[in-house]
Amino acid sequence: MPRHRTASEQVSAALLDAAEIVLDRDGVAAVTVRAVARQAGVAPMGVYNRFSNKDGLLAALAIRAFDDLAAAIDVGPDDGPADRLRRASRGYRRYALSHPARYTLIFDVGSPAADPTSPVTTRGREVFETLVEMVRGLTLRRGLDPVHAAQAMWNGQHGAVTLELAGVLQTPDAAATFDQTIDALIRGLQATRG
Fold it and tell me: Fewest CB atoms within 10 Å of the CB: 24, 121, 142, 177?
């Protein structure tokens, strides 16, 4: 049976919707309690009552961004492990390019995810675990730990996306270059067939 949101959850969701509008339109630095209250058409106290302060608001936004990223990389087990990883990586890229401010919120310097005790960090680890499970599906080179392999995979895809967002690519077709990067990473992780 589907769960119905309470009025309180609906108000919090509406405030987060307003915060996402401010974030997407004006960037992370513009997300303030006053700006979100103005966007939502409520008094600033309404935002404070839900999120305590700006840091609480940014943390809730970051958790939502991680939830959306998790949905973007959730590709199901239809194909083999390498194809699944490729599709998930493309979903990661699509999310970052479609929502650059949200991507910056969760991965830039000063991110709420940088605090190891934050629920944002916990959610980020859960999303990373999805990547670990996909990497575990590969036949990895002997001695290669799946967590380290997933970190290497993430380093590569994150670096490629970050360069693309910054507009500093040296090749004309960013999508093709991204796919080649992912293919190279997967080949580097897999055991050679002998």
Answer: 142
